[in-house]
Amino acid sequence: MKVSIYILIFSFIALFSCDKSDLNVLPQDRLSPATFWTTEANALQAATGVYSKLSDAHSYQLFYADGWSDDAIPTGFWRGYYYYVWGTGNISPENGDLNSYWAALYGVIRTANVFLANVGACQMSESLRSRLIAEIKFIRAFEYTNLYLTWGEVPIADKPLEVSETKIGRAAAGETLKFILRDLTEAAGVLPVMPTETGRVTKGAALALKARVLLYAGNFPEAAATAKQIMDQGNYSLLRTPAGDGYFQLRNTKNWNNQEEIFGFIYDGTNSNNGIPGNLSLDGGLMSPSKSLVDSYMGYNKATDREVPVDESTTTSRFTNRDPRLDWSVAHTGTRDPVVSSPTYNRILDSETEPLSKNSTGYACFKFVNADIASNASKVTADNILFRYAEVLLTYAEAKIEANQIDQSVADAINDVRSRAYGAAKNEVAKYPEVTLGGQEAMKAIVRNERRVELAFEGLRWYDVKRWKIAAGPGGSMNGPVLGAKKADGTYYHAGTRALSEPNRDYLRPIPQKQIDLTGKDVLGQNPGY
After folding, report:
1. For the chain: N or C, fewer Cβ within 10 A?
2. Cβ neighbours, 10 Å, residue 118
3. In angstroms, how far is the first alpha carbon of the chain from the final one?
4. Burial call 53-85: b when 16+ CB within 10 Å, e when fewer
5. Could you tell me if residue 212 is left (phi over 0), alpha (psi between -120 and 50 degrees) or otherwise beta?
6. What would the pLDDT profile of 356-401 be if each residue is shown by its tens digit?
7. Residue 32, Cβ neighbours under 10 Å: how many?
8. DSSP summary character for residue 348
9. Closest Cα partner for 150 from 193, 113, 100, 220?
10. What pLDDT is stored for residue 305 in this prediction?
11. What are the angstrom distances between the C-alpha of 258 and each of 169, 251, 451, 467?
């Protein structure tokens, strides 16, 4: 049964607008409760306005976020933005993009708080009011999660603030996490399992975010239990197709609103260029995938049902007998160009010739490309999946492994995800590299790599390497050269050098200096090392 959630992002009336100069932490309310907050229609309109603000903070989240991880590196002029500069270890608190991200996240929170403070005045049914409050609390929790994962403890406000109230400090240790989990627990207790209409948050979405947050926070027993709640609902499953390419078809327009999607939103690009086409291009898209990511896709011989080493002897052999998700995620030598409007349409591509050679690594992001979108890339309406069932299964498996509660359900969850990638059913164990139970360290390695290849380019990799503490410092995955495809002369593309060398500093971004100046350095403070 289809229960996925979508929000059509559009230009909303200026009910929640604020001046662009208002970049302080928590701008004051601009609405007049006496003139607007009166009817059920007002409440629904205002709730839609909060949903629409998601695009302000996340217009590129799924299309460049992994450019600040070890999976990819920004391409071309995108290297001027903070997510590249930060990766070099040179980010400054003065960085304007960093400040804009902070302001955008708090902008969504502000609109959520305005809604929550005023919806009680509307004449409407209590059941609808409770549901809308739960939906908006989910959105607020989502944005506080992004703040928390980026900067650590941050200022918390649960109501619209007057100007005199905006100079507040960061929450005490653990309080931001408690606030997020409280919002999500309350929301999950009210939201319906099935959406009342397409585009609304459901119980599954609140639980999916809660499970993610608990996993990131290291509360493994509760993360597993929360993921299991979603699994037990029974209304989500992985998208599988007769052709076996369900993993790639997830974002095809004909499959929008499918059973795997838990929450997301659709960008309506029919009236404006929303920037997404930049990543759908195979030549100079937003990010160039790394050799490190490509190497993580295992070798597997279907004929013998055996894992095999990757044969690096030729350009053809190195992409033969690999996890199918490699071909569906990364454009490389041997990939056929699917972009109908491209001059190289249907040509077999090579990493050393255009268009791939225009990228920093000789690889390109292929995951979000499908012909019905890419053929009209200047007017894209694109599906942005923020939560899907595959992540829930892997969260469950990882949390159980980390808690050392390893049982058959762990292998079943991973195998459900992996078998889909190979076009097989979970019980068809001779058709894919089945995971069998092993020791805790071995199982950790398996589920971590499975997350990497399954969720590549979906904006989660940085938060994974951060919580695993494998990115910064000596031997860190983001402390050294970024290599790409192998060339005919035996060398590799060299796309730059990452320099996250100080774990005590580099796992958090600097608080934007503009916010410190507006709030007061003795009030807001700076993260260590900046």
Report:
1. N
2. 19
3. 50
4. bbbebbbbebbbbbbbbbbbbbbeebbebbbbb
5. alpha
6. 999 999 999 888 776 555 555 445 556 678 999 999 999 999 999 9
7. 9
8. B
9. 100
10. 95
11. 43, 9, 21, 31
Contacts of 238 (CB under 8 A, 6+ apart): 246, 259, 260, 389, 390, 393, 416, 417, 420
- Which stretches of 350-481 are DSSP H helices? 371-374, 389-402, 408-421, 440-454, 461-468
Per-residue pLDDT tens digits for 76-129 = 767 777 778 888 888 899 999 889 999 999 999 999 999 999 999 999 999 999
* pLDDT tens per residue across span 6-58: 333 333 333 444 433 333 444 444 556 667 899 999 999 999 999 988 866 77
Query: Tokens in use for 343?
Result: 């001059």
Query: What token pair was written down for 465?
Result: 């390497």
Whole-prediction pTM: 0.91
Q: For a pLDDT cut of 70, what percent of the chain falls above it? A: 85
The reply to whether omega before 528 is within 30° of 0 (cis) is no
For 376, the token pair is: 């009209």
- Whether 500 and 84 have beta carbons less than 8 Å apart is answered as no
